[in-house]
Amino acid sequence: QAIEEWYKSLPIVTRTYVTMAFLTTAGCALEIITPFNIYFNSKLVFKKLQLWRLVTNFLFFGNLGLDFVFHMFFLIKYCKSLEEGSFRGRSADFLWMLIFGGTLLTCIAPFVNIQFLGSSLTFMMVYVWGRRHQYVNLSFLGIFNFTAPYLPWVLLAFSLMLGSSPVVDLMGMAAGHVYYFLEDVYPRISGRRPLKTPALVRMMFPTEDMIVA
Questions:
Q1: 108 or 163, which is more confident?
Q2: Which of 10, 49, 130, 143 could be disulfide-bonded to 148 (CB atoms 3.0-4.6 Å)?
Q3: Quick check: 59 and 25 in contact, CB under 8 A?
């Protein structure tokens, strides 16, 4: 019951993404599907028209285990925090951020040979959250304190200590920085907002229009 109530309390975009990620990863673990059916491959996408790969590669987070738990924790924590925080009442704008970030990462992926981009998208959310909470103090394993904008760099250093490749994390940070600049910095400089959410995305959240009205 407590888990059910917690699940229902998640905002709509976060709940949908987490559910799809869990079901996809669990489906691979149970061999209902295989990672070979869902990984990103530009040739299969554009030559064989296996368009689902543009989405499914963001939903697989590795084998069920400690690494999966670690990634899901950060996905839920920062996805939920953003949607309930700086995107409160603006789930359409939050979804547009994910679409923009996913598109940017997809364009980069063929050049760095990355087949699954879910971790990069999560890192993008961590980066944006950190930039929008500049004065929040955090602690890493109780060893040292730092402010939120340094969180992605701390996690990057931790990944390097564990022997992971930095490419996935750096891609997410780059996408996060591009979004932050175009959405938060550039409009203050120019008075223009280049990443305005399209009407088609807003149509998916009609109750938000009612609230705004």
A1: 108
A2: 130
A3: yes
